[in-house]
Structure formats: C-alpha cells, structure tokens
C-alpha cells in the first residue's frame, strides 16, 4: 500500500489563529493577484506552486516570473543569460542582456510541481515541456509511487481503476504523489489555480487557507477572477496555453474524465460528466481521503483473502479424492 511518511506540520502556520487568518484574508481580498503573489513570495516560507497547466496556473506562473524580474531589476541584479557567449558578456553590460533576453533567462524562484497521473492528454504533456522552455524553469514531476509508465501503474492496480475504484484511483494518482512532493520539497505553502467562479466546492474559496491537521497553507491568488479575466491575461501576455482550449475544453484533467465544457456558464461541466463528483481529491481533507483509501484497501485485501480461502476449501475434496 503506497504510503508517504507522516505529513509534516508546517511550523510557520502554527502561529496563525483563525482570527489571524481572517485578518490576513480581509487584507488579501483588497489586493490584486500580482500583489497577493508578491506578498506570498516575500512572506511565506517554503512556497511552491502546484499546477496541471490549467489557464489559471499559467497566469500565476507568468505573474511570478514578472515579479521576479522586476525584483531582480530593482535590486540591480544582472543574471547571465543561458544562451549568451562569454565574448557577448564582455561587450554588453548585464543590464543589456537582462532587457534583451527577458524572463526566459531567469531562474524560477518558486518551485513548480506537476503531478503526472499517467492519464493526461498528450496536449497537456506537450504544454508542460513548452512552459519549461518558455520560462526556463525546472519542473518537478511527481508520479504514482513506483510507477514510471502507465503500464507500471496498470500492472500493479489493473486497467481502468477509475471505473472500479474511483477513490483509490484519485488517492494513488493525485493525492499521494502530491503529498510526497510537499514532503520532499519542505513545502509550507502551496499556490493552487482554484477560483470561485469554478463553482461547486470552490464557490466560497478563501484566498489563504490552512489545511487542518498539517497546517499547510494553501494560497489561491486568482480566487476572485472569472475565466474571461484569465483568458484576457493569457492573450495579452502571450502566455502558452493548452491546445485543447481552442477545442472547447475549459477545465482539463485526465483524458478519461474530461470533455469539452457542455455548459458555457460552467467551465468545469466537462469534468466527470454524468457523475456527482466535482473534485479529484487534491483539494479535499487529506486525512479523510487517506483514511478512506486505507479502509478500501483493507476491504479489498479481506475479500481477496476470503476468496483464496474459499478456493482452498473448494479444492480440498478434489485433493482428498
Ligand atoms: N496534475 C496536477 N498536478 C499539479 N497540480 C494540480 C494537478 N491537478 C490539479 N492541480 C492543482 O489544482 C488546481 C485546480 O485544478 P483543476 O481545476 O483541474 O481541478 S482538480 O484538482 O483536477 O480537481 C490546478 O490549477 P492550475 O494550476 O490552473 O492547473 C493546480 O493548482
């Protein structure tokens, strides 16, 4: 049974009371997303961004890069462009390179993680590469435990696990790898691309949340934006985006649970179509999810054991005869 080590408790957020959180959120509500992100980059230790390269996450990523560039410029830092030769460096001053090369030559200041469920669209995987090239960022990819390929996953858990045991599927492909990422990177605060206009559980999303039990901070800097605002930003700043958006997709997850949006007023209407489900588990109570997963595994093991015992009993008369 895949297990991460016990979830760490964020030492930073343990100093927050509910009153502190309310106060901070009231302040954050008055800030633009850029200012929220800037505040987080300065104030929150162990800050990382988790993204499936949805339109919201791409806006956030672009904003982080712009803030980083501005900060470097303000601090008069002159990074060496990855592509320039030594002789060019001698003839031009650093500032010239900085302006000429733009943010493609900057080191990304907030670690970026992507959970590869093994069932993403090829368009999403292509975009992941495009984004890394565009921003010159080292992407940290996390996969289901002990799985390099889809075949590895299916050897361990069977084919189309989402049809037979949706909860275990979500835990194995998203929740556990995500938690492993947070542990390994020492994350204390995680930026996500959720927005209130995505409706469902997200309709009343706070900008800053504290995960119960672990104290992990979750920051949703674009909580107040509409899809249209996100889209306008992407086009205005020429941010790379998923080719599936041009085919009517609005929210993009695994290929087997994602379709173009069926309702133009509900951007997540193409996710888990025909099911009650609205979340993959990444943003629900971690301990509850883990407990349910463990209970399901126990039941499966008990069932297997009783089937094996029944088979032994059934074979017994044949052996005696
Ligand atoms: N596979 C994967 N890897 C890393 N991070 C992920 C992943 N799936 C979801 N997320 C994070 O959740 C944000 C909302 O995603 P979705 O609207 O697609 O919903 S869901 O999480 O799949 O239910 C999503 O926002 P974006 O950054 O806009 O993609 C991420 O912050």
UniProtKB/TrEMBL annotation:
The keyword Glycoprotein does not apply. Residues 265-274 have a biased composition (Basic and acidic residues). Pathway: Sulfur metabolism; hydrogen sulfide biosynthesis; sulfite from sulfate. The keyword Oxidoreductase applies. Pfam families: PAPS_reduct. Residues 49-260 form the Phosphoadenosine phosphosulphate reductase domain. Keywords: Oxidoreductase. Residues 76-104, 255-274 are annotated as: Disordered. GO terms for molecular function: phosphoadenylyl-sulfate reductase (thioredoxin) activity. GO terms for cellular component: cytoplasm. One of its GO terms (biological process) is sulfate assimilation, phosphoadenylyl sulfate reduction by phosphoadenylyl-sulfate reductase (thioredoxin). InterPro entries: PAPS/APS_Rdtase, PAPS_reduct_dom, Rossmann-like_a/b/a_fold. NCBIfam families: cysH, PRK02090.1. Belongs to the PAPS reductase family. CysH subfamily. This is Phosphoadenosine phosphosulphate reductase domain-containing protein. It comes from Mortierella hygrophila. The lineage of its organism: Eukaryota, Fungi, Fungi incertae sedis, Mucoromycota, Mortierellomycotina.
């Amino acid at each position: 049974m895949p297990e991460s080590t016990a979830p760490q408790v964020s030492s930073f957020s343990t100093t927050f009371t509910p009153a502190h959180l309310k106060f901070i959120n009231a302040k954050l509500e008055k800030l633009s997303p850029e200012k929220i992100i800037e505040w987080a980059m300065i104030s929150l230790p162990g800050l990382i961004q988790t993204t499936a390269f949805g339109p919201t996450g791409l806006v956030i990523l672009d904003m982080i890069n712009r803030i980083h560039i501005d900060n470097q410029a303000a601090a008069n830092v002159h990074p060496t462009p990855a592509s320039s030769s030594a002789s060019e460096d001698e003839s031009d001053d650093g500032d010239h390179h900085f302006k000429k090369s733009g943010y493609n030559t900057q080191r990304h200041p907030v670690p970026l993680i992507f959970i590869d469920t093994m069932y993403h669209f090829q368009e999403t995987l292509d975009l992941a590469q495009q984004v890394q090239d565009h921003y010159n960022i080292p992407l940290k990819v996390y996969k289901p435990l002990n799985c390099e390929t889809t075949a590895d996953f299916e050897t361990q858990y069977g084919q189309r696990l989402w049809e037979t045991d949706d909860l275990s599927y979500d835990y194995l492909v998203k929740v556990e790898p995500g938690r492993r990422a947070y542990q390994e990177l020492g994350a204390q605060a995680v930026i996500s691309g959720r927005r209130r206009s995505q409706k469902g559980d997200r309709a009343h999303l706070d900008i800053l949340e504290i995960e119960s039990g672990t104290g992990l901070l979750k920051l949703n800097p674009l909580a107040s934006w509409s899809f249209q605002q996100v889209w306008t930003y992407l086009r205005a700043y020429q941010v790379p985006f998923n080719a599936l958006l041009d085919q009517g997709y609005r929210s993009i997850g695994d290929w087997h649970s994602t379709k173009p949006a069926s309702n133009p007023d509900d951007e997540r209407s193409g996710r888990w179509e025909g099911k009650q489900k609205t979340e993959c588990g990444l943003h629900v109570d971690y301990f509850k999810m883990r407990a349910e997963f463990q209970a399901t595994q126990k039941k499966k093991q008990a069932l297997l054991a009783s089937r094996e015992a029944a088979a032994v009993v059934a074979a017994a008369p044949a052996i005696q005869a």
